[in-house]
Each structure stands twice: as structure tokens, then as C-alpha cells.
Amino acid sequence: MTGPTRGAGLRSTHCPYCALNCGMQLETSEGRISRMVRWKDSPLTKGALCSKGSTAHLQVDHQDRLTTPLIRRDGALTPVGWDEAIEAAAAGFRRIKDSCGPDANAVLSGGSLTNEKVYLVGKLARLALRTPHVDYNGRFCMVSAGKANMMAFGRDRATTPLSELADAEVIIVVGANLSDAYPVVIPQAIDRARRKGATVVVIDPRMGRWVKSADMQIRLRPGTDGALFQGLLRQLVKGDLVNKDFVARRTTGFDVAVASAERWTPDEVEAATDVASQTVVDLAELIGSTSRCMLIHARGAEQQLDGTNNVLAMINVMLACGHIGRPASGINMLTGQRNGQGGREWGQRCDQLPAGRSIANPEHRNSVAAQWGIEPDHLPGVGKTYVEILQAVETGAVQGLLSLSNNMLVSAPNLSRVRSQLSGLQHLVVIDPFPSEVLDYAHVVLPGTTFAEEEGTVTTIEGRVVRCEQITEPVSGPNEIEVLCRLGASLGANESFPFDRGRQVWEEMRLLSAGGPNDYSGITWDRTADGLAWPCPSPDHPGTPRLYEQRFAHDDGLARFHPIQPPIDRQICDEFPLAMTNGRHLAHYLSRNQTKRIAAQDSKAPEPYVEIHPETAEKLGIGQGQAVSITSATGRSTVNWRANDRLRPDTVFMLYHWPECNELVADDLDPVSKMPGFKHTPVRLGPVLDLISSGQMAEQSKEKAPL
Ligand code: SF4
After folding, report:
1. pTM
2. Ligand 1 centroid to 74 CA: how many Å?
3. Which of 496, 516, 536 is the last residue of a domain?
4. Residue in 13, 39, 44, 52 to alter for ligand 1 test, most ligand atoms within 8 A of Cβ
5. In what order do the strands lie in the sheet with 464-468?
6. Structural domain for 102, as ranges
7. Helix (H, G, I), strand (E, B) or coil at 618
8. Ligand 1: does its nearest atom lie under 6 Å from the Cβ of 22?
9. Per-residue confidence at 4, pLDDT binned at 50, 70, 90?
């Protein structure tokens, strides 16, 4: 592996958008970025980039950047110096802590932050604010998959390198919008497997552009993934397709799991999922008759009110066949955000300490407290999750909020309620490189740093640590590591925040992880250039690309089957007869706060729209040239529409990059992972007379902002 190139003004980093972390090199001229070059030796992606990645560097010197700290005075955000802004941010939190206790402050952060910033955010919450309430927007993304992996395997990481996809005989893709969300590496590896004769099975209510006519296409009813996989488990048993040796030697809980699947006969599965009973029988035969089977899944199955159950049901099937821990086999969750993997490992989750340690585990608390030089009792306990933190504002239990790289006014569910929650805050401090809708509610704004303005590491979709070099100086002055450390110092925890650059934080994190669940200790700063997969417990360890070859991560080394609860009934009804699901557009990332500013990206998708099956549109009298009103039990939106006959007729698809989507989504939560059910909202549609312009949509959003 070739490390980052130095000299000649060319330095290596990784795309700031999705968890494939495509490598790129950036050239500078007079200290600013002048050119992007493909990095042919980069880990995993070897120079591949989608259009988002190849224009990402244009955000760094963009005219819309926040460059000056702001404080709200007489209702208006007013430019001030850094010292004054940091003191105002800290003073607000101190005031709330003194009057209402430390639990009245909270932190919400993001899955795009580097590992180093994730670590500092968790440390800031626990040691400086002394609050248990710190959570992140991965609560809207990866927590159901992560929770299920922890329960089944004892570790939250993809099992198998993506390069092994090309050698699989059977590839099952569940709820993954590969064309838009994972456009490089994965579709190409699947193509290679197809050419070698692999069978590709796609389980999704909407078939993406990457799906081929020869693939086995299973357009199940939204929200019924768990029922399908329960039926498969039952059929594996009935068809004598279980890998009995693997189940006996390496797992526990098989009989209880099978008992929970007993009611799911092929006919019952057909009734619940709309998948033909013969397809259930055929698919079980296919999965159970190969030794090289990879299942990859994403948010389609996970962002459900029973998303954790859905993932556990998939894991049960893969364990029953012994498809874990051997080449070209495994089950991988496709992490979404830039650092969706590291973002859920380094302590910014309400139940977690750094390196995958649990804040509820006395041994883990002792270990982290010793390394932080504090008594274990000094650490708070388990805090509230993302939506629960916002809901606590309604009762006054939370009054102060620090928000980093986090645009909840697009990405959280039930947006009208979120607006009201943000209005109720006494003190809102926002750290972000760009202004977002959240600034309308902020009391203090601290300009953040883009991907090219600070050094750090991220952990990729496969669990590899890669390094992002600092390419250029931050346009706003201090980098975000310095900002977090200055805030920590102002809150009275100076000795815990002695850092001003990524490699210093990395050294503390690496050593702290030694002997813990996510052991990164062998990945020295020099080795971060090589793309090493954790666990990596010593400086001469090669890393662990494929997990569970000998043991699972539970103390006894065994994987756990889990009984699957009956699916949560959120079926369509007369009042709301269609199911709305959602997803990405290739041109945009999350709330568009970066990509909408880059003309080459925004011109590809300048406004939200809903996809409707042409038969459904005709039935509802929705014609070309008309907009559509979409109503759910939570809200109403008006957008233009496009026909898509690769979608189930009883399902509509909305892009989630605009608020029009989450106006409609309820804030009910998966009881295990506390993930909202983004992927299944019962709705009704009706025609509106004329197409509406993006300007009119912007006006609709503005009307909802505070005065
Ligand atoms: Fe690669 Fe994802 Fe960036 Fe596209 S958005 S260049 S696929 S990391």
C-alpha cells in the first residue's frame, strides 16, 4: 500500500461524504486548494470517485462558509471575536448547569466527524459539561444494525472485506440504494461476481438502476423484511439446509430462534410480505446450498420501528448456514455517513465510552476513568438518545444544547415538532462549517472546519482506519479540535483538552483502546496511512479485515441466535393507503448543506420530488405538469413528482435531502435501538394544480422558521 504523497503541493485525503471514503489527492497553490487528482493507490477505492467526491474540494473556499463567530444580540446574529464567542458559549452552559444541574445541558453531534473529534465530543460532554446526554445523528442511520451486531456477534462492524463480494456465488442485497448511495466499488464488485456466474438477489420495494433483469428481484411490501427472513429460517430447517456443525460448534440459541419462526410458513410469508411462497422456498434453497454467500444490507431494512429485529432475523439466517467467518461469505451492514463506523465507536453515543466500551459496564468505566485521570464515579451514566434529548426540551429537562455538524431541521423526524423544540432552548451553540436551518435558533455560532482543513482519521465502511491529511489552513481561524479544546477549557476542564491537532488526540485514543472491545492500539499514527482494519492490538499486527474466523467477540466466543418478535403493525389503511419510503440522490449528501452549494451537484437535483408508480398516478388522477400534496398523520408537504415503474404501486419514494420528507415522518422509535421508522410512513396523495418552483418550496420552508 502506498501512503499519502507528500511534497509538490500534493497531499492525500478521503472524500468527506460517504463511508466508502474514496481516496483523493489535492494540490495547493499559495496555500489554497487548486486541483483534485485521483489517488490510484488509495485503500479500497483505488482512485474511484463519484461526482460528489470529485467536486467535494470546492466546498473548502466556498463563499458561503461561516468564517466569523456569531452571537445573537437583539434578535440578530452578530459577528464577534473567537475569545468572546467561546466564553459566551461556555457561560450559557455554566448558567444552566448552576441553576438546573448538569443534566440540563446536552450535545448532539454527527457521523461525519473524524474519530478524533468524536472522541473529544464525548469527553467534552462527560468531563466538561458533566452531562450524560450526548448522542449523534447515527441514531438516524446505523444504530439498529449496530445493536443487532452487538447482540449477535458481540461486535459492531461489517464481517467481510467488500473485495470478497466479487468471489461470492450468492449475493443478497437488502434495502440498499446502491446506485445513489454506494455508487463505486460495490456495484462494480457485484458485476464481477455476475460475470463469474453468481446469483444476485435484491430485496427491496424499489429496484435501483444497478439492478439487472437477470437478478432475482423481490419487491416486498415495505416494513416486512423480518417476516421474510423468519420464513427463510423456517424453510432452511424444513429443507434440511442448516449447517448443523457450525450451529453446534459456534453458536447458541438456535432452537429458541427457530421456535419464533415456526408460524412463518411460506403462505404466511406471502400474506404478510407479498413475496410468492415459492420464492421463499427457492431462496432458502439458494442460500442453504452454497458455501460462498454474502448478504449486504442498508437502511431500507434498518430504519424501521422493528429495524433491530429485521437485522437479527437476517443474521439468524446467515448463522444457520454458517456463512460467517469464511472467505466470500458474511453479512455486512453498509455504513452510510463519512465516519458512520468510527462515529459509533468513539464515545459520542449516549450509552458508550470510547473504543466501543459501554458506559454501563463497571469494568469499562474503571478503565476509561483511569486513563482520563478521574474517579469512575465522576463519569455520568447512560443518557438520552437523539429524539429523547429533543423531547426533553419540551419539559424543560434539557435547556442547553451544543450541536455539531448536525442539521436536525432536515434530518430529524417530525420537523414541526423539532422547530418547536429548538424554539424552547435557552442556549443553543452551533458548530458548523456552513450556515444551516438550525442557525435560525442559535444563540452562539462557532465556524467549523471542512475535511481538508484539519488532520484526522476516519474508519471506513469495512472497519479500516484511514488518514485524512490537512491540506490547507482553516478559513475561519482555529480548527475544530482547537475549538472543542478551548470550549472544554472554558468549562473548567483545561487539563483534559491539551490538543491542537489530530495526531495528538489519536495517540491518546489509540492507547486508551488497548485491551478494549475495539482495539486500535497497534495502529500508530504512521500506520494510519495504510488503511488498517481493527482489531489491531499491537504495532506489528496486520489488522483484521475478515472477522470471526475462529471466534465471535462474546466472552465465550459463540454467536447468539435471537428469537424474533412479531412485526410491528404499521400497515397502510383507508385514510393513508400508500407507504412512503425515502432515500438518497446521487448528487447530494444528507441535508445538502455542503452539496447544494456546488453548482455541478445542485444542478443535477435542485429540488425535492416524490417518485410514484405510473399506474398509481393515473389512478389518483395525478397528471404530468401537476404537483402532489402528500399527507401523513404527522404533516403535509407539496412537491413535484416523477414516474418510476421500478417501484411497488402501493409505495412512493421521497428524497430525504429536503425538509419536505421529514415533515411527514413520525418520531416513534424502535424500542431497542431508538431509531425512528424513516422507511415506512403511511401517506395519502392528491394532485395540486400546478408544478411548483424550487423558489416556492423555499418560501414554504421559510414560513416555518421562527420570527
Ligand atoms: Fe466515494 Fe462516497 Fe465520496 Fe462518492 S460520495 S466519492 S462514493 S466516498
Report:
1. 0.95
2. 42
3. 516
4. 52
5. 456-459, 464-468, 532-533
6. 70-140+339-516
7. helix
8. yes
9. very low
